[in-house]
Structure formats: C-alpha cells, structure tokens
Design goal:
The complex is a heterodimer of chains A (370) and B (304). Chain A is α/β, with parallel strands linked by helices. Helix content of chain A is 45%, strand content 20%. Chain A is globular, with a radius of gyration of 22 Å. Chain B has a domain of 211 residues. The chains are: A alpha/beta (370), B mainly alpha (304). At the A-B interface, helix 2, strand 7, helix 7, helix 8 and helix 9 of A face helix 1 and helix 11 of B.
Chain lengths: 370, 304
Amino acid sequence: MKLTRRTAVLLTLATSLTPIAAFAQDSVKIGYQLPLTGNTAQYGQGFHEAAEIALTKFNASGVLPVPVEIIYEDSRSDAKEGVTIARKFVDDDDIVGVLGDFTSTVSMAAAQVYKKAGMVQLSQSASHPDFAKISKWQFRNITTQDQEGAVNAAWMIEKGIKKVAVIAEQTDWGQSAANGFVEPFEAAGGEVVYTEFFNRGLADFRSIITKIEEHEPDAIYTGFFYEDGAQFLKQVKQLGADTPVYSTSAAYNDTLIELAGDATEGLFLTATFLPSRQDENVQSFVTEWKKTHDVAPGQFPAQAYDAVNIMLEAVVRAYPDITRESLRDAVAETTDFPGVTGNTSFDDNGEPLKELTKATVSNGVFVEVQ
Amino acid sequence: MFDPYILQQLAIGLSLGMIYALMAIGFTLIFGVLNVVNFAHGEVYTIGAFAGLMAISAFGPPLLVVLFIALAAGAFAGFSLERLAFSPFRRFSDEASLKSRAMREATLMSSLAMSIIAREAMEMIFGSQFQSVDLAYLINKPINIGPITIVNGDLIIFAVTLIMLGGLQWLLKKSPIGLSIRAVSNNALGAKYCGINTDRTIIITFVIGSGMGALAGILVGLYYGAIFPAMGFAPGIKAFVAMVMGGLSSIPGAVISAIILGLSESLSTSFMSSVWSDMVAYGFLLLTLIFFPQGLFGARRDRV
C-alpha cells in the first residue's frame, strides 16, 4: 500500500479514536460546565486543571474497576450558554452528575434545568444564598457570603470599627456579599455610611474611592475578585487613602499580591484555603499544581479540586448501581470530607459546613490571623 | 464652590478623558481615510501593551524604549492588518467596485474577524488573566498638587496626547504624505485619477494609526498595571463614541469629545451609582446625535 497523505490522515484518526471508543463503553461520565473562554476564562481554566489533577489521581488509584470521565463544556460565564449546556448534559443519558458553573448567575440559570430533569449539580464556587435552596439537586462546597459576611462583621466590631463603606461588584454574588455583611454588622450596632456597586472589570475606581473618602469611614468592606481587587487597592494607595480594607475569600489569591505589590499590605480577609498549610492533602495538590505554574493555586482551583473529589467519592459510594438519583443521595451523604479547603459536610439544603480562616497580608504574603 | 472633592473628581475625569483620547486619535485617523470602522483597533492596542510587556520582562529597557517597541509592534500589526483584512477588498480597480459600499463595508466583518482571531490567540498564548507587570514600570506614582492627587502617568499621557495631536496635524497639513492622506480621505477615486498611490497611502495611514493605538495600549497598561487580552474592548467602545461625537473624521473633535466623556463619567459617580456612569456618557452621544447629527465638530467639510 502506498502511503498517501489521505491514508496517513485516516490512520492517525483511527489510532487516536480507538482508545476513546474502548474507553467510552463502561466509564462513568460526569459533566462539568465552566467558562473556558471569555472574560472569566482564567477561573474556568484553573478549574479545568485542578479537576484534571484530581481525576488523574483518582483513575490511577484504581478504586473503581471502571474509569471516570469528565466532559467539559464552555459556558463563557453566559447564563444562556449555561442553560444550553445543562440541556445537553441532561439529554445525554450517560451523564450521571454535573459540576459547575463558576458564577452564581449562570449556576442558578442552569440549576432550573437540573431541577426539572433531576440531576445532581455541585458548584465549586456559586456562593449566592439562594443557589442551594433551588432544589434538592443543588449542592456547593464553597462557603456562602452570609457566612463570610458574619465573620467579617464580628471581626470589625471586635476591633472597634463603627462606620463602614461597602463596595461590591454588580452581580448576584456581589449583592449577596454586601447583604451578607451589612445585616450582621448593623445588627451588632455598626453603621454603613456608603454603599456602592461597580461593574465587574471596571478599570478606574478613583471616582468611587474619592467618594468613599468623602464619607470618612473607619473601614471599607469589599466584595470583589482578585483582579478588580488589585486595581482597587492600587488606586486606594495611589490616592493616599489609608482606610483599612476588608474582603472575602474571593480576593484571596497570590496573584493579588503579585499584581498590586505593597498596596495589598494590611488587607484583611476571610479564606478557606491556605496553600502554606502543612497538611498532606494540601501539599500534594500544591506540588501537582506547581508542576505547571509558578505560583501556588488560589482558592478557586482548590475549590474545584475538592468539588471533583467530593463527586468522585460519591461515585464510589454509589457504584456499581449509579443512577442520577443514587448519585445525588451519595453526594448528600458526604460527611467530613477531608479536602484541601477544610472538612466539608452538607446540611439538608446542600450547604457546606466549613470553618473560615482569618488572614491578612504582611510583608507580601498571606498569613493567618489568630 | 470648588471644594477639593469636586477638584479631585475633575482631575480624575480629565485623566480618564486623556486615556480615551489617546486611543481615539488613531481610530479616527483610520476611519477618516477609509470611511469604515476598524474593529481590530482594540486588538492593536492590546498588541502594543503585550509587546511592551514582553520587552520589559525580557530585558527591562528604559520606559522610552518600551514605548518605541510598542509603537513598532503596533505599526507592524497595522501593516499586517491592512494586508490581511482590508486590501483583499480593494483588489478590483474598476469604478463600480471602487464606489461599492458593499465592498467597503465587507471590511467591517473582516476586521472584526481579525480582532477575534488576535484576541483568542493572545488568550491561548498568555491566558486571559491579568499579566503581572514589573511594578517599577508602572506610571502611577502619586503627585500631590494642593488638595488633589494626580499620578506621573497623567502627565506622561497628557504629553503624549499633545505630541500625537500636534504631530499628526503637522503631518496632515504640511507633509506630502499628509497631503495624499487627505486627498484619499476626501475622494479616493479622484485621488487615484490624479496619480496618488492610494494603496500605499492607505498602508501608511494604517501604520501611523495603529502605531498610535499600540502606544496608547502600553501607556494605559502601565498606567493601570492591567494588561490582559480583552483590555482593548472597553476603551475601543469609548474611542468609537468619542469619534462619533466628534463628527466621525475630526481628530481634534474626537479628542475633545473623549475629554467630555471622561469628565462626565467621573462627575456622574458623585451623583449616582457608578454602574450608571456609562449611561451618562452614552446619553451625551444620543444628545449629540439628535442635536448635532454631524457631530460636535463635523460641520466643516475638511476631513481628517
């Protein structure tokens, strides 16, 4: 046989397709919807890598006689796209459970589809208070903003802070971050002197900062992610404002310090994941991650790593009789799952029960505040 | 009546306006010649920022050298863009094709395609996150003038905008290249019949306009310390609005409109939530289009 280009292409295709075909026969399939392109792609790509680390480790361990497969779909953090993906997953009879999405908005839109069809959905990051309440099929392993806000409010009151300005991004998540803080803070006798929401990705915070300073608060509570956070902190420093800034675990990321340098000094925040923690789980994840990255993973890849492992553990519990129903019950049974973001159990609503760590930036690193 | 608070907001608004103006200049120049929007201008801006960033991380040259590297990268990007997305639509030289709006407007789509390809390629290579910039290069060192604070970047951007504006006016009005650019923008067919090499003129316009766009990209990138593949989108929209407000092909008009946009954004934050500040800017655009359909500075027939 003469080796023409066409036969060469066919041969390559055939060899590359055969293993997939054999693989697909009895593997357990999980769907994962996440933003792989678009404005929030860096988070989705982090999830993807963390999920692959967890999955490779799991499949190599041989706990199950069949491999588990994750099917990734790119939602671009767009609610319409998220719903389309949800329908696609629901229509695929092989898929027994779903992870994702990234934002609360998209997760909640897709949740309506999963609720109707009866498919377990575990989000690593949707922290809007209403998400897990949608139905018995929704779970998350991230702490809600109600929990973080309460911890932050108590922390500030303890330090004698009375007047606070609140600024958060204009999303479902940002609203919940603001409300989750304002309610317990006001209940404890604090006063919120100014509240402002901004569009995610805003380049220039200086007008808002000037306005915040006009109200002379004792502290600023912020609901933002690390990129907006870096911009905000740099501009606070640039304008010479020396009001202490408090934030949530969403801002917790080593890249924040890299992007904003010493403008981050003295930032206070709550967090669930500290890559410096001397724990075997944490260190093995951080080592794997650092094989392809210069910096330690932030909170979000860690959340995804745990979410995938919680799902895999549930698959093991439900095996061999895995249906969408049995997998959902297996996820709900999760108790004290030892993850890299702390021990996770689910309550009746699918809310995680976790402990929060208080941290601050000192000399260019995040350190735990005792 | 002018308390420090308003003064500070005015200063912020001016610096925002200068940033939009920086991008609007190149954008308007290219529009003036071809009469079509170059959708890829935002990506040229991003390419400039990334070229500067790579130079910084590779061998840490002085700021001025970084700016020239960005300028060169932008000029090259502009040249390639013209060759790939615009010139194929001018390959027919009969009169019907030259006058055809469809042929011209097809470049809207081809430039949009180029912009998507360039942006996605940068996302694949660099990732979509903020790139870390050597903090020593940032042009955000505060300078206090009485009660208000500006940064050294404001002065640099102001100076660069003035030089660009002045240099461009000189080029357009006094040099032979400028003469042919103005001739092509006024009547491409007529210019061709008079023996002007329209193809070459269009390439030169792209090279100049894109070089300026790229320079804007690296300056704004260092100003905010934020360089990422999607960074060109939002300023691109603002530059477009400034161009339309300024009368589509008037460069000084675009600069003044950009400053109006910046001021209205920063001042509106004082009176309403910041998420509405864009609405004020676009409100100005609507008002301009209703009351001055040719733009604020578009009444004069002299294009570019």
